[in-house]
Amino acid sequence: MAVKTFTAGSVLTAADTNTYLANSGLVYVTSTTFSGTTINVNNCFTATYDNYRVLVEVATITGNVVPVVQMRTGATNTGGTAYLYSGADFLPGSVSSQGSTGTSSFRVGAHSSGAAGMDILEFYNPFATKYTGLTSTTQGSYTPDSRFLIMVGGYLSNTTSYDGFSWQVGGSCTGTITVYGYRKA
């Protein structure tokens, strides 16, 4: 789409507005509040979008946990041991690396008891029959004065079409998961 330049006195028509709205970036897909240790988000990936952004807002959590993601097909966790990932933990005064190959889930961050946090997950081609990629960024705290950042990237080494995912933690938590699709131009 060519970018139209408007000048002072130009008229913005309904067609112009519809074109720009239809070609905007992120589009809301679904949102859910959660409470528990496993949050399943089904039927959120379709052929409508190739890539997705998922925001996980953790309001409360019990225990120090390392969330993981498993892909879902037809409301069933799948992917076997085809998950591969690597990443870095940026803690006050230190940096460490982590990673794994041939596992049954993606590690996507960490959260600490009593502290709120946020995971940003980027899914690449989850519905397509090609490798599914995932990057995540987690911002959280161990205490109100101790912040951290965790970045992870990986993929599933299979060509399965996935229509959802499961976000799992080792302790009970509450929060909201919101899924957005990246509109195709």
Q: Kindly estimate the percentage of residues that lie in beta strands according to DSSP.
A: over 45%
CATH architecture: Sandwich
The coarse silhouette is: globular
**Beta strand count:** 11
CATH class: Mainly Beta
* Main beta-sheet strand count, sense and barrel state: 11 strands, antiparallel
- H/E series: HEEEEEEEEEEE
Contiguous low-pLDDT stretches (5 residues minimum) are none
Terminal Cα span:
8 Å
Please count the helical segments: 1
Radius of gyration: 19 Å
Structural class: mainly beta
Number of domains: 1
Proportion of residues in helical segments: under 10%
**Overall pLDDT score:** 86
> Can you tell me the CATH topology?
Jelly Rolls
Give keywords.
185 residues; mainly beta; Jelly Rolls; globular
Topology overview:
Layout lengths: L13 H9 L3 E16 L9 E11 L6 E6 L2 E3 L4 E9 L2 E10 L2 E2 L9 E8 L7 E12 L2 E11 L7 E19 L3
Antiparallel strand pairs: 1-11, 2-8, 2-11, 3-4, 3-7, 3-11, 5-6, 5-10, 8-9, 9-10
